[in-house]
Amino acid sequence: AAGAAGGEGVAVVKKKKPKPPPRPKTPPRPKTDAEKFAALMEAEEWEKAAHFAATSPSQELRTRETVVAFQAAKATDGGKPPVLRYFGALLALKGGLTHDEGVALATPMVAQGQLPLLQRWIGEGRLRPSEQLADVLCDAERGGPAAALPMYREAGVDEKATLCLVETGDLEALREESRKEDPASKPDWLALLGRLCAARGARRARPLLDALYALPPPPTPPDDPTDALEVASYNIELAHAPPPMPPLEAIVGTLLDHGGLPLATE
Q: What 3-state DSSP class applies to 153?
């Protein structure tokens, strides 16, 4: 009996090892503004993307690349183009647009004939004047050179400022500019016409040609070259008179040299 009892033995119960406590989960990395913006663009949430890009606290999205992204985006529902939504959000800000944003906004607006609205925004400080913005404004068929002129002067780009005066046909301003270097100097109309045609194209020369055609004839020489009073009066009148219109053949030749056949034919 004792042997039987000893043969049964005693069961040994193994203790289970305690499970280690769960590791704390690593919090997800916060998304950057660029990642949030990319997600909104991918989801075609144009209004939200425009507002976010314009008002993001870090301002890292106010770049040329953001403008290009909105320009490339297309509204699938036929609504307002995404780029216009973005510019609308920017114009609502107090600080105005950056240089790149202003140039990007002005380019399509000039093409659509909205120069007066651009000029109003410039006057309100929403767009920053610059040589590049003036280049865009100058392309406007009506009023472009006049709008660009003060910007060129402010930027110290004298050559482009002079071309604006030439394109608008402001002969008196060109005479004043010529007298700044030499009081006795007079502008060379034909040379200015050639410079304008080379830089802007012959089609932009009509205002200058109209102004040249309207020039008064040169003073008439005195009948009596021995009359000192008449000669003196003629010389004074001649000194103050604008240079006469160049010969018509020279004007036509200059226009033809720069592809201005229609204008030359007229």
A: helix
